[in-house]
Amino acid sequence: MRLSDEIFENELIWLQSINCSIIKNNTHIIVENKSNTTTDFNFCVLKGIPVINLQRCIRISSEIDNILILEETLYKNNYILEKSFDLNFIYKKINKKSISKSEFILEEVSFEKWKNEYEDDRLKLGQLHYYKIKYYNDVIGRFSTVSNKRVLGIYDFELKENFQNKNLGSRFLNEFLNLDLVKDYVFIQTWSDNLKAIKCYLKAGFNIYEKLYRFNKFKK
């Protein structure tokens, strides 16, 4: 399986945990979320070049084969490209760095505690783990992970407002990437307009792996 496909399968697990329905068949995969109607959580991924007239957002990866042919086909079928796009970042684990003294404490929390504190409608899935980030004695942030095959996905990454813009995010991620629980690849996602997150992830050691473009059907 290609790395981009593994990343997408990882993302689908997280999407299920936030109440997205996933519909798969031989030609496409549909993601739907009735409580959040944005194209972030409502899109279709095609498995082939022919465009299926589903009257919904179609998301394509920069890593797919024949991307130019697919884009041309979408334009011919009255689809319009969204200005913003998602960025998938990858860290490839090579050699573990030695960290003399950690500034951070990683505290795993139960699903029930996470749900009560942050999200009432989160679904419990075995592949997800939930964490709080402590900087010395202060809880400064949180995130969750999804693990599948070679990829560990980081989701819900957030620092409290009073701890932002202090390089704590990139410093924590840099330490996290050297933990034993990290797999061959670590994946994290943001959108093209989130310049702070992009800077943070690059500084932590991630590289941009792929871009995810969204096309919407033009309604005459």
Strand element count: 12
Strand-and-helix sequence, N→C?
HEEEEHEEEHEEEHEHE
Largest sheet: 9 strands, mixed
Radius of gyration: 18 Å
Q: Which structural class should the secondary elements be placed in?
A: alpha+beta
* Helix residue percentage: 10-25%
Our measurement of the CA-to-CA distance between the termini, rounded to an integer number of angstroms, reads: 39 Å
Range of strand content: 35-45%
What is the CATH class designation of the largest domain?
Alpha Beta
Task: State the gist of this model.
Keywords: Transferase. It contains 5 helices and 12 strands. The protein is α+β, with helices and mostly antiparallel strands.
Overview of the molecule:
- The chain has 220 residues and is of the alpha+beta class.
- The chain has 2 domains: 90 residues, no CATH class; 120 residues, 3-Layer(aba) Sandwich (Aminopeptidase), CATH 3.40.630.30.
- Helices cover 23% and strands 36% of the residues.
- The protein contains 5 helices and 12 strands.
- Strands 4, 5, 6, 7, 8, 9, 10, 11 and 12 form a 9-stranded mixed sheet that branches.
- The longest helix is centred in the N-terminal third of the chain and has 15 residues.
- It is globular and about 55 Å long.
- The protein starts with a helix and ends with a strand.
- The model has no long low-confidence stretch (mean pLDDT 90).
